[in-house]
Amino acid sequence: DSQKVSDEIPATSDPVEFDKLTLVWGKPRQPPLGFEEWSTFLDAEGRIMDSKALRKRIFYGGVEHNLRKEVWKILLGCYEFDSTYAEREYVASIKKKEYETIKCQWQSISLEQAKRFTKFRERKGLIEKDVVRTDRSVSFYDGDDNPNVALLRDILLTYSFYNFDLGYCQGMSDLLSPILFVMKDESESFWCFVALMERLGPNFNRDQNGMHSQLFALSKLVELLDSPLHNYLKQADCLNYFFCFRWILIQFKREFEYEKTMYLWEVLWTHYLSEHFHLYICIAILKRYRKKIVDEEMDFDTLLKFINELSGQIDLDAALRDAEALCIVAGENGAACIPPGTPPSLPVELLYSDD
């Protein structure tokens, strides 16, 4: 139905007119998906009968908190949409054993061995330093000797052995924290994190190619969707879009309160309108503040400071509605701005089979 919507939008080259349109076209947000409605998507064996309809429903409303544990594992691809309850249980038991095996690898490293294993010591040190600073304002992680903080550390260390080439980078604890908060289970959190890192791992590559391709796509999309902003940023020598780095790296994790971040993530994970919907959210936010950015003639440093200070100030529902409208207006031209393989693209064999 995005085609129908875009047909109804009058073509306009006037950015002011276009701004009015974006605010009209995003559909109203819905209440979150609850247990009763969720069961209508499943057959007697637990298979999801219409994954597209489910993804659309979550895109517009998110998921009730107590249901997230079940739904996130499917959205992230730990389980297939058409898997049965029995299959999911079987996969979970196999994966639990696999997790224990990998965890044992680093747990078995003796002090003597660690002395001669610089990479391990460095990673362990970095992880230990990061987890004690992660989401301590959330009661689940607050206080001294919190066992959940220890779990964050264990899962991240295990991941650094599972994906030894990537290892651990700052920001990963931010991505794991809501997952553990929802799953409350070490092995399930680990495999959800693995699935998320299949998509976002390139954000943390040493050469930053994953980040560069997203920032490049963002600049192309702004050029397409907001030429006055693009022209200003070009003139201010800000077209590298590094001021949006944090937004993209950890998926707006530090921009919204905890509950809102979880809601935003499940919307993004549906890949309903675009697997790069987070880029349209970036544009929606920048568009809202374009007048201020241009009027105050912000240079890069001022802009970076301004963007970082927006943390906690952004209206998420409005940003989602605007981003939806921008995504529909951009259509195929928008998709063409994004180089193939740009994160969070999934490896081809993992993509949804029913689209």
Would you write up a description of this structure?
Its main location: cytoplasm. One of its GO terms (cellular component) is cytoplasm. By secondary structure, the chain is mostly helical. Helix content is 63%, strand content 0%. Helix 6 crosses helix 11. The chain has 3 domains: 29-83, no CATH class; 97-200, Helicase, Ruva Protein, domain 3 (Orthogonal Bundle), CATH 1.10.8.270; 209-337, Ypt/Rab-GAP domain of gyp1p, domain 3 (Cyclin A, domain 1, Orthogonal Bundle), CATH 1.10.472. The longest helix has 23 residues, at 85-107. It is globular, with a radius of gyration of 21 Å. 37% of the residues are buried. It has 19 helices and no strands.
Strand content: under 5%
Q: How many DSSP E strands?
A: 0
Helix/strand-derived category reads: mainly alpha
Give a short account of the largest sheet: none
Q: What is the H-and-E element order?
A: HHHHHHHHHHHHHHHHHHH
Q: State the helix count.
A: 19
Q: What Rg, in angstroms, do the CA atoms define?
A: 21 Å
Gross morphology is globular
Spans where pLDDT lies below 50 across 5 or more residues: 1-17, 348-355
The CATH H-level superfamily of the largest domain is: Ypt/Rab-GAP domain of gyp1p, domain 3
> What is the straight-line distance between the termini?
14 Å
Give the class-level CATH name of the largest domain: Mainly Alpha
**How many domains would you count in the coordinates?**
3
CATH architecture of the largest domain: Orthogonal Bundle
CATH topology-level fold name of the largest domain: Cyclin A, domain 1
Subcellular location: Cytoplasm
Function: Acts as a GTPase activating protein for RAB7A. Does not act on RAB4, RAB5 or RAB6.
Subunit structure: Interacts with non-phosphorylated form of RAB8A; phosphorylation of RAB8A at 'Thr-72' disrupts this interaction. Interacts with ARMC12.
InterPro entries: Rab-GAP-TBC_dom (IPR000195), Rab-GAP_TBC_sf (IPR035969)
